[in-house]
Amino acid sequence: MAKGHTITIEEGDLHVRVVHDGRVLAESDRPLVLRETGCPVRYYLPAEDVRLDLLTPSDTHTHCPFKGTASYWSLPGAPDLVWSYPDPKPDVAAIKGHLCFYDVEVS
């Protein structure tokens, strides 16, 4: 990691729900909570808790020097709404097999 840049990942005990246009896209009681310097807290949800059948893979890929290359999924009218790191860097290997959404409800 770059000096002063940290990423921590811990198992969360919160209920995380993702709703878009009234449709539940994901719901999980076992999120990974990722905290990264300069970024909002993100909740990575196990793929089994995400309605992958509602999402379409996107051609978008971005690269993070700390996490690796992200792949994205879209909904009609909501491009690149979801992302994951299929082959994350070793320091964040725990997020493999998990997806992250921009907007979530946490309780």
UniProtKB/TrEMBL annotation:
Annotated DUF427 domain ranges read 16-103
The organism's place on the tree of life at top rank? Bacteria
What's the protein name? DUF427 domain-containing protein
Organism for this UniProt entry: Streptomyces actuosus
